[in-house]
TrEMBL record:
SUPFAM superfamilies: PLP-dependent transferases. Pfam families: Pyridoxal_deC. This is Uncharacterized protein. Belongs to the group II decarboxylase family. Transmembrane segments: none annotated. It comes from Spirodela intermedia.
Length: 383
C-alpha cells in the first residue's frame, strides 16, 4: 500500500505541475488542520439551528457565511445560507428557492420547470436584446434567471444591472428571482477596479460561489447565500435531527467550512485583492505572449480566463489539462499559475506549433477579431 500511495503522490505532483485549464487554486497549505482529520465532522441540518449531533463545525460554517454576507452586502438578520458540496449544488439550491418563492412548491421539489435558453454575445455574456424578446413571450409567468458571474468557457460576466433593467422595462417588476452563479468570479469581482457590484442591495435572490476554485480548498465545496425570507417556504422541521431541513443534501462535509474559515481569515480582504490583481496581470501577460507568437487569443474584461485556438495535438491538450470546447481552448489563471509556469507552457506550445503548422499559420479564424478587439498582433487577424 505504501508503494501504491507513493506512486500516486508522484502522479499528483506531476499533474499539478501541468494544470492550467480548470479553475482550481492549487496553492494552499492547511498543515495546521491535520490535527482534525481523525474526526467525522458532519454539519447536519440548518447551520443556524443546534441539532442533536454534536460533532459538527457549524460555528465555522456561520463564520464563513458572515464573511460572504459582508462581501455581498446583506445584514446578518436578513440572510440565510450554508456550505454546499460544490458550485452546482449552489445553483440547484438557488433555483429551488426561486421556485419555492413563487408558490409552486411541488414543482420545486420535482424540478419540473420550463427552461428557456437565451442567446449570448460573442464574448459569452447574456444577450439582453434576445432576453427581452423571450421574456415577452412568457409574460404570464414570473421569471427565474440564472446570471453568470464568469462563464465556464470564456469567463464572461453577465451585466446584472442590464438584466434587472430589461426585466423591469418589460413588466416583470416584482415578478422575478435572480440567482447569481459566481462559481469562480463571485469572489474575484469585488476586488476588481471598476467592476460592477454583485450585492443584495440590488433585487437579487441568491449568490453562490465555489470554495475549491479561487479560495483554494482540498475538497470540492461552495457557499450559498440567499435571503432569509425565502427559506421559510422551502424548509421543514426534522425531528430526527432536531433541526430544520433547508439544504439539498442531508449530510454535509464538516471539514470544508473549517478549511474555508482558515484561509479567509489568514488572507483577509487585502490578501484576496492582491491575488486577484496578480491573476489579472498574469492573464494579460499570457494573452499578449500568445498573440506575439501568432496564436489567436482573447481575454474578456474582468476575467482571468484566456481563450485561444485549440491545439490540434490531443496529447498536448491532456498534458496541460486544457479545457476545450469546439475549436477553442482556455487557460484559467489562478493564484498558483505563476509567470514561470506560463513561460514553460508557452515555450512548449511555440516549439510544437512549428511542427503542427509548418506553413506558418492555422486555419482557425481570429478569436480577438470576433470580439472586436483592436491592436491584435496575431497572424490570424482577419478584420
Amino acid at each position: 500500500m505504501a508503494s501504491v500511495l507513493a506512486r500516486y503522490r508522484r502522479s499528483l505532483v506531476e499533474r499539478t505541475r501541468h494544470h492550467l485549464g480548470y479553475p482550481y487554486n492549487l496553492d494552499f497549505d492547511y498543515g495546521e488542520l491535520a490535527q482534525l482529520q481523525h474526526f467525522s465532522i458532519n454539519n447536519l441540518g440548518d447551520p443556524f439551528i443546534e441539532s442533536n449531533y454534536g460533532v459538527h463545525s457549524r460555528q465555522f460554517e456561520v463564520g464563513v457565511l458572515d464573511w460572504f454576507a459582508r462581501l455581498w452586502e446583506i445584514e446578518k438578520d436578513q440572510y440565510w445560507g450554508y456550505i454546499t458540496n460544490c458550485g452546482t449544488e449552489g445553483n440547484l439550491h438557488g433555483i429551488l428557492v426561486g421556485l419555492s418563492h413563487y408558490s409552486v412548491f411541488k414543482a420545486a421539489r420535482m424540478y419540473r420547470m420550463e427552461c428557456v435558453k437565451v442567446d449570448t454575445l460573442i464574448t459569452g455574456e447574456i444577450d439582453c436584446a434576445d432576453f427581452g424578446k423571450k421574456i415577452l413571450l412568457n409574460q404570464d409567468k414570473p421569471a427565474i434567471i440564472n446570471v453568470n458571474i464568469g462563464t465556464t468557457v470564456k469567463g464572461a460576466v453577465d451585466d446584472l444591472d442590464l438584466v434587472i433593467e430589461t426585466l423591469e422595462n418589460n413588466g416583470f417588476k416584482g415578478r422575478f428571482y435572480i440567482h447569481c452563479d459566481g462559481a469562480l468570479f463571485g469572489l474575484m469581482m469585488p476586488f476588481v477596479k471598476r467592476a460592477p457590484k454583485v450585492t443584495f442591495k440590488k433585487p437579487i435572490g441568491s449568490v453562490s460561489v465555489s470554495g475549491h476554485k479561487f479560495v483554494g480548498c482540498p475538497m470540492p465545496c461552495g457557499v450559498q447565500i440567499t435571503r432569509l425570507e425565502h427559506i421559510n417556504a422551502l424548509s421543514r422541521n426534522v425531528e430526527y435531527l432536531a433541526s430544520r431541513d433547508a439544504t439539498i443534501m442531508g449530510s454535509r462535509n464538516g471539514h470544508a467550512p473549517i478549511f474555508l474559515w482558515y484561509t479567509l481569515n489568514r488572507k483577509g480582504y487585502r490578501g484576496f485583492q492582491k491575488e486577484v490583481q496578480r491573476c489579472l496581470r498574469n492573464a494579460h501577460y499570457l494573452r499578449d505572449r500568445l498573440r506575439a507568437a501568432g496564436v489567436s487569443a482573447m481575454l474578456n474584461e474582468l476575467s482571468s480566463t484566456v481563450v485561444f485556438e485549440r491545439p490540434p495535438d490531443e496529447e498536448f491538450v491532456r498534458r496541460w489539462q486544457l479545457a476545450c470546447q469546439g475549436s477553442i481552448a482556455h487557460v484559467v489563471v489562478m493564484p498558483n499559475v505563476t509567470i514561470d509556469k506560463l513561460d514553460h507552457f508557452l515555450d512548449e506550445l511555440v516549439a510544437k506549433r512549428a511542427a503542427w503548422f509548418p506553413a506558418g499559420g492555422s486555419q482557425i479564424p481570429c478569436i480577438a477579431a470576433d470580439v472586436g478587439e483592436e491592436n491584435c498582433a496575431c497572424t490570424l487577424h482577419r478584420c
